[in-house]
Each structure stands twice: as C-alpha cells, then as structure tokens.
Design a protein that fits this description.
Oligomer: single chain
CATH topology of the largest domain: D-Maltodextrin-Binding Protein, domain 2
CATH class of the largest domain: Alpha Beta
Helix content: 40-55%
Structural class: alpha/beta
InterPro entries: LysR-type_TF_proteobact-type, LysR_HTH_N, WH-like_DNA-bd_sf, WH_DNA-bd_sf
Number of domains: 2
Number of helices: 10
Distance between the termini: 61 Å
Radius of gyration: 31 Å
Number of strands: 11
Order of helices and strands: HHHEEHEHEEEHEHEHEHEEH
Family: Belongs to the LysR transcriptional regulatory family.
Protein name: LysR family transcriptional regulator
Organism: Alteromonas oceani
Largest sheet: 9 strands, mixed
Shape: rod-shaped
Strand content: 15-25%
CATH architecture of the largest domain: 3-Layer(aba) Sandwich
C-alpha cells in the first residue's frame, strides 16, 4: 500500500508533539493542512490514528504503532542526510608526494580562508587508488588525457642560486639533480631537449637522479646545487628567494597534472576545490 510521504511527515510531527497546531508550526504549513493530511492517511489505512479532544489529540493503539515506525524511519533518513552532507564537506585529495608538499600544502590555508566550512584531507603517494569520493590529482602524459581533465601542462627549467644558473660554462661541471620516474610509463623529464634548445652540453653538468622531484629540490637546496624540475613545483621557492630560475627559457614537457574524469566529480565542495586549484595553478 502506498501512502503520501507528506501525510506521514505530518502524522509523525503531530504524534511527537501531541498537537496538530504545533506540527503545523514545525512543518511551516497550516493546521488545516495537517488535519487534511492525517484524515487522508486514516482513510487510506481505514483506522483512526488520533482521538480528537477539545484541547488535545492522543494516539490510538494503531496510532502508537505507526508513531514508533515513522519516528524510527525519519530518524534514519535524517541521519543519512546528515552523513551525506558531512561527506560533501570532506574533500579527499589523492596526489603525488611532490605536488602535495610543494603546491597544495603551502596554499591550503588560503583555501580555508575562502571556504572555512570545508575540510581537506590530502593523501600522497605515487600510486593513487581512486573512488567516487576522491579527487585524484595525477601526473601523467598530456597526450593520454582528455583536454577537460588537464589542470596544467608542465614546463621544466634549471633552478639553483643565481651564480650557478647563469654560468654553466665554468671549468668544473655543475651538479644538477633531476628525476627518473619510478613509474616507467611516464614521459621522461625533458633534460636533453632543454640542453638542445639552449645550445648546452652534457659535459657542463653532472646529473644525479631521484625518483621524485621533491627530493631533487631538497637536495639542491642542501648542497647549494641545481635542480632541473617542474616550474609548478618550484614557484614558492623562487618567490621566497631560496631558488633562482635560470636565465634560459623553460621548455614544455609531455607531462601534465590532471584529474581523471574531472567532470564526474560533482559534489558541491569538490567543484569548489577544483575551481580554486585551477585558479592557483594559473598563477604559476
């Protein structure tokens, strides 16, 4: 048997509050509308749910049985709605260690300043397992991604202190840290293309490798050496004066940061975070 959901809601409220008038106030409808809903429900069930008295209404035995069921049912619904609402506010970002440490975490307070009621949980690692509730910010090949999924195409350049990045023709080779990806399916860092583009030779550099750009940047800072890496990841270090970008032009790579199936991640807070992230990366 099908019954009206508004009628059940009117009944539950009146049963809980012991008053049609109070139920009307709670539901923002008229007492007449409450009475109409309950009369229709009684006719549908062919029972009396309330005993109407001059100043109050009391539940009949069938009314008490239905009141227990509707109370439990609406509590379950309300709990589910609240749970889903909390999930919407929780933004679960899964990304690489380098992107998390060098781009997202330094800028996260700015997101909270703009959206104080959101909560961002960042999981980092080179293997990203995704589900419907994750925002997977991945590093991958530009050619393999839909244009709508790409956040930013990566450019690479040489970074270090001002003396090292402007004098690569000195007698001793300059130590440069670069990256060989743990994931062999990723396009290579464009070191050779950068050398060719700027008429430079391997002999002018001693190149050492890590499997993450984050490590190369940290080691270059510790040793006062150079690092060949993404311009996206070094922006804050350059702004802080810790690294200087070489006077040579940066070079496009075959790499990009992207969100797989970005348009399908449609919760309200996910959309807010994606829009904020796109604005952040446009500043790079």
């Amino acid at each position: 048997m099908q019954v009206s959901l508004p009628a059940l809601k009117a009944f539950e409220s009146a049963a809980r509050l012991g008053s049609f008038k109070a139920a009307a106030a709670e539901l923002a409808i008229s007492p007449t509308a409450v009475s109409h809903h309950i009369n229709n429900l009684e006719q549908r069930l062919n029972v009396s749910l309330f005993r109407r008295e001059t100043r109050k209404v009391t539940l009949t035995v069938p009314g008490k049985e239905l009141a227990v069921a509707t109370s439990q049912g609406f509590q379950t619904i309300n709990a589910a709605v609240e749970s889903i609402s909390r999930q919407d506010k929780q933004i679960n970002v899964a990304t690489t260690s380098s992107f998390a440490a060098l781009v997202l975490l330094p800028a996260l307070q700015r997101f909270y300043d703009q959206y104080p009621h959101s909560k961002v949980n960042i999981t980092s690692g080179e293997e990203i397992n995704t589900d419907h509730f994750n925002l997977p910010v991945r590093l991958g090949a530009v050619a393999e991604q839909a244009d709508s999924d790409v956040l930013i195409r990566e450019q690479f350049n040489l970074f270090g202190n001002a003396r090292l990045t402007t004098q690569p023709d000195q007698t001793a080779p300059i130590t440069v840290y670069s990256t060989r990806w743990k994931n062999s399916a990723l396009p290579e860092v464009p070191w050779q293309a950068w050398l060719n583009h700027n008429d430079l030779s391997h002999k002018q550099f001693e190149v050492r490798y890590f499997d993450q750009e984050l490590f190369g940047i940290q080691q270059a800072l510790l040793e006062n050496a150079c690092v060949f890496c993404s311009t996206t990841l070094t922006r804050d270090y350059v702004k802080a004066g810790l690294l200087t970008e070489s006077g040579y032009p940066a070079i496009d790579s075959a790499l990009c940061y992207y969100i797989d199936n970005k348009d399908s991640l449609i919760t309200r807070h996910n959309v807010m975070f994606i829009e904020w992230l796109e604005e952040l990366l446009e500043q790079h």
